[in-house]
Every structure is written in structure tokens, then in C-alpha cells.
Write a structure and sequence with these properties.
The protein is 5% helix and 52% strand. The protein is elongated, with a radius of gyration of 21 Å.
């Protein structure tokens, strides 16, 4: 992907696969080592789907989006052909490779803070499998008071065998009463795969913030 404009942006992308140009059968998140693209720069995006495809003709619909504050999208279409012999080889190969789930560590977060101060907690999301994954992170509603927790990043893509930290920035007001406050950080991972497969994983990470007296 090339940034032909005059401003930098953070790009993301997906590929949709259509069998015989009509039936949508799979979605593949695309990963780049650096998503921020400066004017005139070119970035290579990669998508990996560890699942066999049946023989046939495929249309690949490439969609790229800029980050927050930008509404433009870029589209591209390509055609590929999968021969019956190749389809059989893939089927035999992937039958012996069960999917490996995303790992999130630690399994819970706890921090003692002083009211009115700022602190950071983090978890590490690791893609242990062979597929690209798109991850989304959010605070479960009606848990921590509004404005106490900021999450960065809220959306990103991991390539196979890659990891990334998710930062939880905790800011408590100066008049917050002492006590224990809890919340749930939700991390959703959608792996590349066929549409009839269960490709979505959810991790709920308990958060505990202790404010001393």
C-alpha cells in the first residue's frame, strides 16, 4: 500500500475471498510491521489463513482503511485459481494442524494507587497460531467509573507468532473515595478463516484498582 497523499495515517486492511466471484467464503485480516504510513511511503501488508480452500476460481477483494480522523478507503481486486491437486495437499496438511488460540498474560491485573495519580498496567497478547488476527479491546460496560481507564491500542492486527502489549492507563480523580474498584478488560480476536468456522475468541481480564485511605 502506498500513501499518495500529503498527510500521514495509520492503515489497516482485510481481504475478502469470493468463490467463483459470487459466494463470500472467508475473511483474512492483514498485518504490517508498521501501520503508520508517511506521505510517499509504501507499506507491505500480509494475510495468512491456515485453512484449506477448495479447488476453484477466487476473487480477492482487498480493502484498506486509514485510521481515526480519516474516512477514505482503498479497494483492489485480484483473481487466483486453486487446482484440485493443490487443494488436496492443503487438506491433508491442515488436517494435522489444529488451531492454536490467542494467549493473554497476565490473566488479571491489580494495582494499588493514590487518588488523583496516574499509573499504567499492561497485558501481552500473543498470537501462537499460523493465522493473522485482528484484535479489538474495550472496557466492559458498567464496571469501572467513566474516564478512569484508557486503553491503547484499542484495535490492532497480529501476524503469526507475534505479540503486542495492551496498555491500561489508570487515572483516578483526586476525590475518589478509598476502596476497591473492579472492571473487565475485553480482548476479542478474530482469526483469518472460512466464514463457517468459529474464528472469534474472547478473553476477559479482571481489573482491580485499590485506592488507599
Amino acid at each position: 500500500m502506498t500513501n499518495a497523499g500529503a498527510i500521514k495515517f495509520v492503515a489497516s486492511g482485510t481481504v475478502s475471498l469470493y468463490l467463483e466471484g459470487r459466494r463470500w467464503i472467508a475473511t483474512i485480516p492483514l498485518h504490517a510491521h508498521r501501520r503508520r504510513i508517511l506521505p510517499g511511503d509504501t507499506r507491505r501488508f500480509v494475510g495468512v489463513m491456515p485453512a484449506p480452500l477448495p479447488a476453484g476460481s477466487y476473487t480477492l477483494q482487498w480493502t484498506f482503511e486509514a485510521g481515526p480522523g480519516h474516512t477514505r478507503k482503498a479497494f483492489e481486486r485480484t483473481q487466483i485459481e486453486i487446482a484440485p491437486q493443490l487443494a488436496r495437499l492443503w487438506q491433508e496438511y491442515y488436517a494435522e494442524r489444529p488451531p492454536v488460540p490467542l494467549a493473554v498474560e497476565p490473566g488479571e491485573l491489580e494495582q494499588t494507587v493514590t487518588a488523583g495519580r496516574f499509573t499504567v498496567m499492561s497485558v501481552v497478547a500473543t498470537n501462537n497460531g499460523d493465522a493473522t488476527m485482528r484484535l479489538r479491546c474495550w472496557l466492559e460496560p458498567d464496571t469501572l467509573p467513566a474516564g478512569w481507564l484508557g486503553i491503547e491500542p484499542t484495535e490492532f492486527t497480529l501476524g503469526p507468532r507475534m505479540r503486542r502489549s495492551v496498555l491500561c492507563r489508570v487515572t483516578t480523580p483526586g476525590d475518589a473515595p478509598p476502596g476497591e474498584y473492579t472492571g473487565i478488560l475485553v480482548i476479542q480476536a478474530e482469526s483469518a478463516g472460512l466464514l463457517d468456522e468459529d474464528s472469534v475468541q474472547l478473553h476477559r481480564v479482571p481489573l482491580r484498582i485499590l485506592i488507599g485511605g
